[in-house]
Design a protein that fits this description.
Blueprint (H helix, E strand, L loop, with lengths): L24 H6 L13 E3 L6 E4 L11 E2 L2 E3 L19 H7 L11 E7 L5 H11 L12 E5 L11 H17 L4 E7 L4 H13 L4 E4 L1 E2 L6 H9 L5 E5 L3 E3 L11 E10 L6 E5 L8 E11 L11 E4 L2 E4 L6 E5 L5 E6 L1 H15 L11 H4 L4 E2 L29 E2 L9 H7 L2
């Protein structure tokens, strides 16, 4: 996606990326292989030369302070509307994610996970109902108090609808449902995709009582980022997660904020191990599409980060599945064709926000981004894969312990995301 500014180790992104698809989307549609996709200015590009074809949900912008959502949708998967009885939707299900990350499906009752996105999804609640009914999850609606939608001022004057961001919203609320079926969901829709509006929506979510706030968007770093940190993300006692990016090695904001948990991405597949699953970095050593990572050019390093190859903020902290090739099932009917397979670090951010909710209320005055650093052994360490080329190499290559693309690893239960005396002392400011 965006290029990033140079000037610090790990802040450069490879200039080239694969953009030519083996087939055009038009050819797939005309051949009847998939349903027509909604209008979007985002291009179709392959995951690999022989892998799945994907489309960005949101168009990119290089303007300062302008964000784009980080969801990707597969274009080589047959789509359909409504609940299906004869076959499960393609993509990872709630049961798959709960199994892969050892999540307690009965925890999180009453906890509110906020989703912050731009623009409106008019079908958000009805699509959420279809997703949850498909998988036998409990109802989550306005009527029973589980679901709430608000504009960035906390009211119901929703912004203009947008098909790309509606797909992002569907992905986000479905991933909260999958990882924490008992959680309440607060959707706060920003007026636009500027950092100021999205930041105002973050503040609104916290004002409305959310202790867990997921942000699946990013943009170029710039010198104003530390000021945005103070204005929008400095909320002690609130777990704020942010997607690390979908363009491989390179840093985006607000994942670079010193106050958030930056969430990278993995490829997640079943195997014959005792865990039953294996993970590697989502990306390629050649760069291009993959989880973002690196060393911020502007944001200071939080006290709980101890890696020595980056004097400023290192990205990421933890990770979860993001590869569209091993993507998640999502239901979106707003100018879309229902069941899809989605990926991008837009998937991993709401998953991690939900794991924080499963782990319990953060301690007052602490920064939950610090918690995994106090409990690294309670994570699945991802040790293989790469998202580009860099120096020092750990910022783009997986290995034992901390690395850029996957951080400290992926959830193995909730212990790494719970407050405790060890991290409370280090996380207070």
């Amino acid at each position: 996606m965006h290029s990033t500014k140079s000037g610090s180790p790990g802040s450069r992104r490879p200039a080239g990326r694969a953009v030519a698809a083996l087939f055009s989307l038009a050819a797939l549609v005309s051949g009847g292989l998939i349903a027509a996709a909604p209008a979007s200015s985002a291009a179709v590009s392959p995951h690999t030369a022989d892998g799945p074809h994907v489309r960005q949900l949101c168009s990119e912008s290089t303007r300062p302070g302008q964000m784009h959502c980080l969801g990707l949708v597969r274009t080589d998967v047959e789509q359909h509307l409504g609940i299906t009885d004869d076959a499960a939707p393609s993509g990872l299900s709630p049961a798959d994610l709960q199994s892969a990350y050892n999540l307690p499906s009965g925890a999180g009752s009453g906890a509110t996970v906020a989703i912050v996105d731009a623009y409106d999804d008019p079908n958000a609640e009805q699509d959420l109902a279809t997703y949850r009914a498909q998988y036998g999850l409990p109802e989550c609606s306005t009527a029973n108090g589980c679901f709430q939608k608000a504009d960035q001022n906390g009211g119901t004057s929703y912004p203009t609808a947008d098909s790309g961001w509606a797909g992002e919203i569907s992905l986000d609320v479905d991933m909260v449902s999958a990882a924490c079926p008992q959680c309440h969901i607060l959707l706060v829709e920003a007026n636009s995709a500027t950092m100021d509006d999205l930041g105002a929506a973050v503040n609104r979510a916290v004002t409305m009582g959310a202790k867990y706030v997921s942000n699946s968007y990013g943009g170029n770093e710039d010198a104003t980022d530390p000021a945005s940190d103070s204005s929008y993300f400095n909320h002690p006692g609130v777990a704020i997660t942010v997607s690390s990016g979908d363009s491989g090695y390179g840093v985006e904001y607000p994942a670079a904020s010193q106050y958030v948990t930056a969430v990278g991405g993995t490829s997640l597949t079943r195997d014959s191990s005792s865990r039953g699953w294996s993970e590697s970095v989502w990306g390629s050593s050649f760069g291009g599409q993959g989880a973002g990572s690196g060393c911020s050019a502007y944001d200071p390093k939080p006290s709980w980060q101890q890696d020595t190859g980056c004097t400023k903020r290192s990205v990421a902290d933890v990770s979860a599945v993001a590869d569209p090739a091993t993507g998640v099932a999502v239901y979106d009917s707003y100018q879309a064709s229902g069941w899809n397979v989605y990926g991008g670090t837009s998937a991993s951010s709401p998953i991690i926000a939900s794991v924080y909710a499963l782990a319990g209320t953060p301690a007052a005055g602490t920064y939950p981004a610090s918690y995994p650093y106090a409990h690294p052994s309670a994570l699945n360490d991802v040790t293989s894969g790469s998202n580009g080329s860099c120096s020092p190499s750990y910022l783009c290559n997986a290995g034992p312990g901390y690395d850029g693309p996957t951080g400290l690893g992926t959830p193995n239960g909730t212990a790494a995301f719970a407050s405790g005396s060890a991290d409370d002392g280090n996380a207070r400011r």
